[in-house]
């Protein structure tokens, strides 16, 4: 793997020596025993422990390890493979505990040379780095990605915030962003347990990426899953905002369920980086 990490403070290239990354202006960052690097600048954290908590990370790993969302990972790989890339660098933006990062990076058909993943959640990155050592993970923010400009071929991002300007900066010419997000009916049965009236999800990333990117492909993926135990239901619930924003009485009702049949509705939007000459016009 080539080193494309840059200092999050001064933006100079980071070099490794004695298990430390440092830049020419003497900013230094230790490489943890798990192999990740914390490149989140302290005064940019906005809270003491930003991002997903260890409890949320553990719940997501428990749920994803059961394979419930494996079709999503397979669809991502299919769309990337259709681009016909070889010897590429991939960035998983806001990668969480690394489930999708690993599924893409470990597929030999994709011919990925370099794979990087970052998240603002330190517990998520610790979990990712411990398990998926083929990926370079760091703790950082989506609006301050510590990678060299024009160093990445494909950015993938799943249920995560976007930064149009930073994505544009780090992507090579004719690079791509693959955004995975909720379709209108995603987990409608769970939402119906939380709200008196279910309202379909209304979101499209185009409005956030329109300035620097062109939408070139959209795909849908719908399938059903059946959760047949309280543990998996609770794990899924803790993955969603519902668990943290729902009245106690409704939470107790949901967690008392022995089974739950769910609609999974995903959307995949592929964007291509605009020609810089087009941006100047």
In N-to-C order, the SSE pattern is EEEEHHEHEHEEHEHHEHHEH
The counted number of beta strands is: 11
Average of per-residue pLDDT values: 94
Uncertain stretches of 5 or more adjacent residues: none
Q: What's the CATH first level?
A: Alpha Beta
**Spatial order of strands in the largest sheet:** 4-7-6-5-8-9-11-10
Helix content: 25-40%
Beta strand %: 25-35%
Spatial extent as radius of gyration:
19 Å
CATH third-level topology: Rossmann fold
CATH homology group = Vaccinia Virus protein VP39
Q: From the 3D coordinates, which CATH architecture would you assign?
A: 3-Layer(aba) Sandwich
Please write out the topology:
Layout: E1 15-17, E2 20-22, E3 28-30, E4 37-38, H1 54-65, H2 70-81, E5 88-93, H3 99-105, E6 112-119, H4 122-131, E7 136-139, E8 152-158, H5 164-170, E9 171-182, H6 188-194, H7 206-209, E10 213-227, H8 230-239, H9 248-255, E11 260-273, H10 276-280
Parallel strand pairs: 4-7, 5-6, 5-8, 6-7, 8-9
Antiparallel strand pairs: 1-2, 2-3, 9-11, 10-11
Helix pairs in contact: 1-8, 2-3
